[in-house]
Request: fold
Amino acid sequence: MTVLCVRFQLPPAREAALPGLLGLLEEFTPVVEALPPDGVLADLRGAERYFGRSAVELASVIRVRALALHGVDCVIGAGPGPMLARVALRDARPGVTCAVPEDAVAEFLANRPVAALPGVGTATSRTLCEYGLDTLGRVAAAPLSTLQRLIGARAGRELHEKANGVDRGRVVPNGVSRSLATERPFPLDELDPDRHRRALLSAAGELGARLRALDKVCGALTLTVRYADRTATTRTRTLREPTAHSAALTRTTYAMYEALGLQRARVRALVLRAESLAPAEQASHQLTFDPVDEKVRRVEEAADRVRAKFGPGAVIPGALAA
Reply:
């Protein structure tokens, strides 16, 4: 085992604790990749040699330190690579690290649903299941040409490799500070899609205002849906062009939500994160010649000036309607 996938069980409004928890991992290895809002990947190859302990043993130390120093428990999956560690995380429980056996990767994956693989969304899973490819074992045994006809040449090849336990991923160190996030928890587990969308509209508007106040734009959005059973679904989408325009952020957020195909899902919270931040002055804006879009941008600028003068809670008449 060389890679850990850690998910910290952060309570609502404690996402700000993630940088400190990343620092805890960096005491063991510099190869740490944040998976906001509450996750992290860590490559422990060097740490295993330095400390003379396996990654699973180091995982126990990390869990104890997170509890002692931050009061935060965590669940941990371990595997030979980041993809396998993330699959193992699905079976992990507090106090018990789930590890993928290095000599039995194919057996570990065989009976798992295709949706267990990171990056396999609802639409791809549905397509495969319609043809009887509902487990990773069946996908691994299917001819590569069949998978490529169903989901495309590149996607089919990557899925075939992953189902057979081939993990070509690597942990890429990043900085959690290169992102902004906001959370919309519900007082009760929420079933109504209209309320989900209103929460997402509010979250996208807040992120847009915060980005513009910092003179930043974002290149991607990550949506995390947390469910009543404490599981979560995370999707990331790259924007067509870096932006801080609330309407563009809202459109992308809605598209990610719709792509999940949630049916009567009991949602506990929605987390929206703006990724790949860059200075606004370095961003280009493609002219659309759409008078409605330009009007919305002017209203947005006016609302930003009002907030700058009277505080973040201030609004101007007509801003929401626009």
About this structure: Confidence is low (pLDDT under 50) at residues 315-322. DSSP finds twelve helices and ten strands in the chain. The two ends are 53 Å apart (CA to CA). The CA atoms of residues 250 and 315 lie 18 Å apart.
